[in-house]
Amino acid sequence: MTRILRILVWVASVLAVVGVSTLGFRTALSPLPATAVETEVMSLASRLGHTGAAYDEPTEAHPASVMPGLPIAALVLMDTFGHQVWLIRMLTLLALLGVAGIVASIVHVETENATLAIAAPALTLAGYVALGGQPGLASPEPMMLALVLAGFLSLRTIPGAWGAAIAAVLVSVACFTDQGAVAFAAAGILYLALEGHRRVAGYVLMLGVLGGGGYVFLSHLFGPWFNFYAFEIPIRSMEFAPDRLIGFVGRELVGTLGALTLATVLAFALPPQPWRGPGGLWLCLCVAALGAGLVATQGSAGSTGAALTCVAALGLVGPMALKYVTGHLAAWPGSNRFGGEGVMFTALVLQFVALLARLSPLHLLTGS
Question: Which of 137, 191, 246, 302 is the most interior residue, by most CB within 10 Å?
Fold first, then answer.
């Protein structure tokens, strides 16, 4: 039975990755009209290329808040391939697939389990679509999250000051790609402080120099309208909406992502404190992502923009938590390792079923 369940997890994972990737490429290359974010990114990239001053007085009543990271990356491609919307869509899709790849690498490093390493990115991609994300359409979140995950992986695997410095550089760049990265920058500080690492001083110093100094530099370079796009638009969009907050927790976290959420919560009951040790970095990241997702529900755009960060965090931490919880239970007298693996694979299969209940495989393959 354990072997059958493992095969089911692999089949579901491969289908999810192939389905979401296919949907993403079809959407990116389709003649769909540009979204508000895509239009703003292309406009900013065009102004950067011609005048060097990206941010100007908005012509619309409710412009999209876009940081300079994605437009600068788009400008590099547009100089070679022309002013085409599919370029920034493909850039975003590659960043999304990069997020899935980094999630797989992290889970494999932490668990040394190939099945969990393939299930984690598959759950991330499928969960992103199930929660309303649209792979193939341009948005800054995938690039931001790819930078954050790469930075945290550096912090986890590279010892000493070099790991902290690389992480701070990548997280700082992520902050200028999407404002939500600020929560992850704080999560890195929290983890290093809890661990009592001497690296916390270097990490904070590098963040201050690159983040604070970069903000001052961009404010002088782009003028006051940069501050308007970076801060005033997101702040103005905030509104007290408890129904959206409860709906996000109830429908998305507890409902659609219930198995991953429950496993993460149960991990707090394990005798080794989960926020201690090297693996505590990922729990701090998960808390930051969920906090950012809850805040995003109070914005006028709802929680779709933060869907990727929440799903990626739970897709990363959830499988690891399942392994630790079931492994702890299997260590009790009368239990065995294979029984624990069977429960773990059953939970993963049920999670895939819950995601497919929100989104049919036909939709994944056709985008209809």
Answer: 191
- 277: how many CB neighbours lie within 10 A of its CB? 12
116-146 pLDDT per residue, tens: 999 999 999 999 999 888 899 988 999 999 9
* Structural domains of the chain, count: 1
**CA atoms of 314 and 302, how far apart (whole Å):** 19
Beta bridge partners of 238: 299
Query: pLDDT tens digits, residue range 29-42?
Result: 988 887 888 888 88
Question: At CB < 8 A and 24+ separation, what contacts does 291-297 make?
Answer: 291/183, 292/180, 292/183, 293/248, 294/245, 294/248, 294/249, 296/180, 297/241, 297/244, 297/245, 297/247, 297/248
- H or E element at residue 262: helix 258-267
Tokens of 194: 């809890």
What is the amino acid identity at position 244?
R
Burial 287-323 (b: 16+ CB within 10 A, else e): bbbbbbbbbbbbbebbbbbbbbbbbbbbbbbbbbbbb
Place of tokens 């200028």: 176
Q: If we measure between CA atoms, which residue out of 358, 366, 276 comes closest to residue 324?
A: 276
Q: How many other C-beta atoms can be found within 10 angstroms of the C-beta atom of residue 168?
A: 27
Structure tokens at 335: 């239990």
Domain holding 60, by residue range, is 2-366
**Chain-wide mean pLDDT for the chain?**
85
